[in-house]
């Protein structure tokens, strides 16, 4: 993916740059709002990371609003130290697709970024079927089959699997699951998400030879086709 | 005090001036557009009003005294003096009028008597009776004069016909000579038959003396009143200053950092100001206490994980032999840092909620479906720990609140319960409408989470909502001691309250089967009967009022 990173802090910028390069992405970076806006409007990117508070008189929200007013639909992940719910809402209202607060874990950033980059393709056409390896999800009938064998899932488990399948091959963090599958925005002290995922595993992986749901240490989960590696 | 009031008073007349000008312009405009209609009356009225206002404003602007209390005192003095003067003048006027009336009546009575005598005996009888009266000295101040048609004096104690007295239809008050002195007299002339003329009068010197005495009294009264007015003014000024100073003293003490100061209440109208200011100070104090508590807590509890992370990193930098060691140390330090971030975020959120700034997301919401959702989320992890979740959710009325915050609050309560409930026990999540009386209209919603864990001592319960507070037997469990603080803050934001109680207040609860092996979180007491707290359980109740629809309106500003 081609990623634009607009971030004024050199440490964070070089860290994110390095990490994204390692993950195989091409990164352009800008350290102020003016350059960021210039790059954003003149080049085509798959996804952008915007810091909100930037030097140069143009802040992240401003860049975002300018882009959206030009019908530029590039997914934007806002990265900011402003962690307030109101700030978050302001960011999303201005046209942001996701909002992360500093300090952040790179794994979380990468997971969210890849989810965003993937979404543009995934949502181009509404899909009624999701196929990952031998796992098949019928989104209309709400049916799951693996190897042609039907798996009975609770509605919530189905949504969980659906989310994993939509982002198959990508790391999905616990926070993302809590936000996207349950629509909760708090930090549970107990391992509530892990338990739900392990229940899903019981049904999706246990009866079969090869597991598809993998735990990524310090990050989250990934749904992968067995022979896909 | 005067420097502080001066700009205020200086500014006020300008405002009035401006307003006066506007009213005038406005009324002129009305007058022009609606000339034919009977507006002019109102127009002249409003113009007179503005003139008055202008006059008042001009006086106000040029008034030299800039002390509110002194002005007040002066006004008091002026009002007192004016009313006293009016009162005394009325008394004076009324008394003299009464006296004069009395004199006139006696003159007329006398004259009638003389005329009757004339009927019996003509001039001789009248002059005899006058002489007789004068000799007898019946009334020392009585004046008589009987003259013949030729103007010759027949009887009486007046030396001659006074020159001004011509008509017989009115009283004359003139100066007359009596014996050797000149005096003021009230006279009335009467025409008798055959051209005889009679004057009956009365020396009113006494009245003049009385007038003089009364005038003197009045002057003295005025002096005394002025003195009293001055004293009263000073007393008022002192009272006024006392009130203002007690407020000023308190606010200046607060400005210098002493938040415990309060304005004393004295039962007067100023109490309204005093209670408002006091309430404001209470709130300020609470917020300041919160800030202080947080900074203490940060100093105390946040240094520990920071120190731990630092030690790990330093140790790794100095002693790590292999890359794996290094990575492990760094990963652990990262976990520590994430923990610290979590604490910071929780603290900030609590502080923010407590400051009451976060009502932007308030909206009508139904609690029960929310609780089903959260219960579903938690049920799995509870089952995994061998806990049972019992739901007792009744239909509840809509409340006005912040959905996310309530979700978080309930999640915190469930987290707590999961942490402390022994395996095999039941956690109950219940919701019910809150009523003042059975069958009355619900006034709120009550959400409660009860467990069958070790419970809390009463002293701990009282402190549980403090930031970073952790009960002794909870020290070993993970957590930061901020969960209940957040719930408390959310409750307060919704004008509700969080209360903690025993699930089974009646005493030790029969232990469940399979709970003999103590959970690590619950201390190390081997036998349940030695620890009466063992199974009393903790019940956290969140009471939320229905909320005011005004809360969902955007905040002003």
Automatic annotation (TrEMBL), chain A:
DNA bind region: 127-225
Which Gene Ontology cellular component terms are annotated? cytosol; protein-DNA complex
In alphabetical order, the GO MF annotations are: phosphorelay response regulator activity; transcription cis-regulatory region binding
Residues modified to 4-aspartylphosphate = 51
State the UniProt keywords alphabetically: DNA-binding, Phosphoprotein, Transcription, Transcription regulation, Two-component regulatory system
Give every OmpR/PhoB-type domain span: 127-225
Q: What is this protein called?
A: Response regulator transcription factor
